[in-house]
Amino acid sequence: MRIVLDPEAPRGDLVHRVAQMLRGGALVVLPTDTVYAFACDVADKRAVEKMRALRGLPRNKLFSLVCADLSDVGVWAGYLPPYAYRTLRRILPGPYTFILEAGDEVPKSMLGRRRTVGIRVPDNAIARAIARDLGRPLCCTSVVGDGDDPPGDPDELEDRFGGMVSAVIDGGVSTCEPSTVIDLTTDPPEVLRIGKGDVALFEGG
Predict the structure, then answer these.
(1) Over the stretch 119-163, which tens digit does the pLDDT of each residue have?
(2) Under a CB-based contact definition with an 8 Å cutoff, are residues 170 and 4 in contact?
């Protein structure tokens, strides 16, 4: 199934339809402000494990949480030092994944030994609208692994993954550049991966 959504102003009824699918345990492919990603309901353990199996990910490979806005980050992250909150407020929404202490709401199945979690608030109206309708973050991982070229054309996405997921959410052709990953559990923050997000703010400590 392919559901086309306007990347600037996604229709509410279609957004709700996708959120209802996720509540029912579905996996979907959806756009972010970087690459397309597999997504499911973070509260559905079976869907999370199905997504892990689909990508062939080991247990130590963690997923990201895609939140609707900054207020959700405060719920799903643990303690946020003042400098970390100021950083998030300054540059989100944007093409970053921030490693933060995990809050109590994060399922144990998503946590590694460090009890941290990757959190995103992408500059993409579709992903944020679906998370907002769902009422909690989306559990996401890119459709391909690090080092591979992720497809950004919805036609190719449907050809490659349409038979593996309940729906491909078409938000137009996307970038093939991943998010920049910043660890905010350290002071100063540590750049773990340089991607689409500008790292100038974090250079020099």
Answers:
(1) 999 999 999 999 999 999 999 999 875 556 777 899 999 999 999
(2) yes
Per the CB < 8 A criterion, the answer to whether 77 and 103 are in contact is yes
H helix or E strand, kind and range, residue 96 = strand 96-101
Determine how many CB atoms are found less than 10 A away from the CB of residue 12: 10
Whether the Cβ atoms of residue 39 and residue 23 lie closer than 8 Å to each other: no
Nearest residue to 127 via CA among 45, 202, 67, 195: 67
Domains of the chain by range and CATH? 2-196 (3.90.870.10)
Q: Which residue has the tokens 């309901």?
A: 41
CB 77 within 8 A of CB 101: yes
Please give the radius of gyration of the chain, using alpha carbons only, rounded to the nearest integer. Answer: 16
* Distance (Å, whole) CA 197 – CA 163: 32
